[in-house]
Amino acid sequence: MSYLSFSLKYRPRRFDDVVGQDHVAKTLKNALSQNRLAHAYLFTGPRGTGKTSTARILAAALNCAEGPTPEPCGVCDMCRSIALGNAMDVVEIDAASNTGVENIRDLRERVKFAPAEGRYKVYVLDEAHMLSQGAVNALLKTLEEPPPHVVFLLLTTESHKIIPTILSRCQHFEFRAITLADIAASLRRIAEQEQIQVDDSALMAIAQAAEGAMRDAQSIFDQVVAYADGPITIELVNEVLGVTDHALLSSITDQIISGDIVGCFASIDQAVSEGKDLVRLVEHLTIYLRDLLRLQVVGNSARGLGTVAKPTEAMVEQAKSLGASRLMHAIRTLAELQSDLKHSSQHALLVELTLAQLAAPPKPKQAEQAVPSTPVAGQTARRELAPAQPAAQPTAPAAPSRPEPSRPEPMQQEPSSTPAPPPAQPVVASEAQLDLPTLLKHWPMMYDELRRMGHTPIGAILRDATPIAMSGDIFTIGFTARFHLNRIEGEYKKVVEQAAERLFARALRVNCKLFADADELRAAAQTAHTESQSSATQPDDEPDSLPAPQGPAQQGTETVPQPSDVTNDPVADEPGALTDVREPLTADQVVEQTLSLFDGSAEMTEAENQEQN
Ligand SMILES: [Zn+2]
What we know:
Elements: H1 6-9, H2 22-33, E1 40-44, H3 51-63, H4 77-84, E2 90-94, H5 101-110, E3 121-126, H6 133-144, E4 150-156, H7 164-167, E5 171-174, H8 180-194, H9 200-210, H10 214-227, H11 234-241, H12 246-257, H13 261-273, H14 278-298, H15 313-342, H16 347-359, H17 379-385, H18 436-452, H19 456-463, E6 466-471, E7 474-479, H20 482-489, H21 493-504, E8 509-514, H22 518-534, H23 552-558, H24 563-567, H25 570-573, H26 587-612
Parallel strand pairs: 1-4, 1-5, 2-3, 3-4, 7-8
Antiparallel strand pairs: 6-7
């Protein structure tokens, strides 16, 4: 007998064999035993969840020699030919390649004839959402008055694309994504029948890779079994799946711990030269760090680890060196990176940037430090204390070094050990009124303030956003890119608020709002601007220009340390500048912009260092 793949050999033959869809099986079995069948069914759900299998089982249940029955026998001619996919009365149509109206008209002609062998003609329309409008209309007529011997089964992964008139004529079943545990248990049954030795962690790794699709899980298992000489371990599964080499993940982690940015870059180069996909590398590094977090939190246990069956000595040590809070921060940063990578083609740049950030010495918790409301610190003091940019210090040894147990965790660090640089002088005096026009006028200074605080990339994000409202001590920033908004709304909100507090000499809170595109953002900014002007006590003569700050605010402006910022401010120069809100940047442009700023600030730090010497 020729070799049968697991997915064919273990294809479900009875409703109870379909994994994870008990709600569907129960309803269909009841309908069959009570002879209350609908003429059309719609099966929706993710791929690999058992829609096609259930359709074939239903066809067999209707046509089995002992049927109609909730338990098709599986051995009669009808059951067997349906299982093999060559029964004359069960017609499987791939709607993706038969989208046209002619195909459906042809089908309408054919449904009139009685079944050739069985009791029912069963039409299985896979990818039903792909049918053309004409085909759908033709199908609707058939669904309205179906011949009694015909059952339609519409299958789709995209239920939202099925029009309501079709939906209302079908009985709808939603197939759920199969849980990892259910997939692993089902693979375990196959392993027992095939007498294959396999670790639980290996089965879970396969289930994870299959992302809820049983068919995929079975074919990965097939592949692993074909590759294996002996018992199947998680390491072997990872090897077959092309999961990043454990040694590489471990050495990148060492480089992060020891602040070895050059080493991090070398590791990325190595991965790229070996043809590894950086998106996958980041995914696997995230899982690796998650394993370390588990070790740190749960203790030295093998349970639930994603990269190895048993934790190594080195992993335990790495977990200890990094500590829970730094690990959580790293995992969150890598998760953000994963979503950023989807929007960018410059993968190597983004990965380098993030690893450099993770490997940089932990910053003090700036948000918790008291910021004086009227700071007066001068330029010199600020420069002396300016934090080094990660890109400006790639001087660590290239060889991965052992973790330094003495490195303090960010959470444990004394805030006074490395204080944040003193802020620039505020541009608006604390007692002066702060309204939207004033905020807009000084908005570009936020980029500089953030750079001074060591958050150049956040400044770059704000260049692509604009304040659109100011109410009390809350101002709202409008964004056109969701991933920018998520960045600011997530961990960097405090940082932006702090920068604003330094500039405007008062406690301010930030709100974020997403707009569909630059036009919508521009319109909102224009409206807010006009409204804030009409409500002002001294209305401006020119409706489109931004009023200069009144009274004390004007004095504040004169003490700005870098007046060039104000003169270069396009909003201040051009009366109609509000209509000139930038088009949203692509992720790639943001990367370029961020990097150029990075380079600029690196040069600046160097120049400043020379100045001091
Ligand atoms: Zn049968």
